[in-house]
Amino acid sequence: MVSLIADNYQLIQVMSRFGIPMGFGDKTVEKVCSDHGVDCATFLAVVNFIVDGFSNYDTDNNVSVESLLLYLKRSHSYFLDYCLPAIRRKLLEGISLRTTDVSFLILKFFDEYMHEVRIHMEYEEKTVFKYVNNLLSGKSSEDYKITTYSEHHDLVSLKLKELKNIILKYCPEDANTNLLNDALYDIYRCEEELSSHCHIEDCLLVPAILRLERNRN
Question: Which domain of life is it from (predicted)?
Fold first, then answer.
């Protein structure tokens, strides 16, 4: 496990979202997953997707939907409760609200983006994940199918692109450059992580749910 993480530092977040803490010594990936009750095939499918952008595994059969749902729920908590609020604090500290309308516009755009991300993720929690849990418990629904979700899966990336352009083009002169640069870097990183999050849902979760739906018919 340690060599895997050392070569791909972005997997630290993957470990956290699977509930795997650091301090695993020289244990193998399989042993670490077993110790923490994580489905190893699902962990490796997500790892491979994060590192390579695709999966070498037959995910339609090997992915544990329960483990993947837990991973996605923890990802939502990370974005909504930590990542996005932390960026907002940096923006607030980095810009001056006393002088220009641009400062207010930056915060307005970011707050609107946070709101839309929250709405999207709450929809997933209350509708999509609830539907999946019902399937897992043997209940079917004629009113909803996972294809409905995949057809409308969008994380309002356009608004985040507009925000980045505003900061790059119209950054207030009296802004704290280091703080604003740090916030902008975090915005780019968050955008990449959210994009990866969406791809995992589309390419790992949706095929697994389609299999569940077929088995219920």
Answer: Bacteria
Q: What is the pTM of this model?
A: 0.86
Average pLDDT (201-206) is 87
Task: Locate 25 and state its tokens.
Answer: 């010594």
Determine the Cα–Cα distance for residues 162 and 38; give it in Å rounded to an integer.
Answer: 39
Cα gap 217→26, rounded to integer Å: 45
- Cβ pair 56, 41 in contact under 8 A: no
DSSP 203: I
26-67: pLDDT as tens digits: 899 999 999 999 999 999 999 988 888 765 555 556 789 999
Largest CA distance in the chain: 63
Burial of 10 (0-12, 13-18, 19+ CB in 10 A): middle
Which residues of 23-152 form beta strands (DSSP E)? none
Contacts of 154 (CB under 8 A, 6+ apart): 120
Secondary structure of 76-99 as H, E, C letters: HHHHHHHHHHHHHHHHHHHCCCCC
Domain residue ranges of the chain, discontinuous segments joined by +: 2-56, 60-216
Residue 134 backbone phi and psi in degrees, to 5: -65, -40
DSSP 20: -
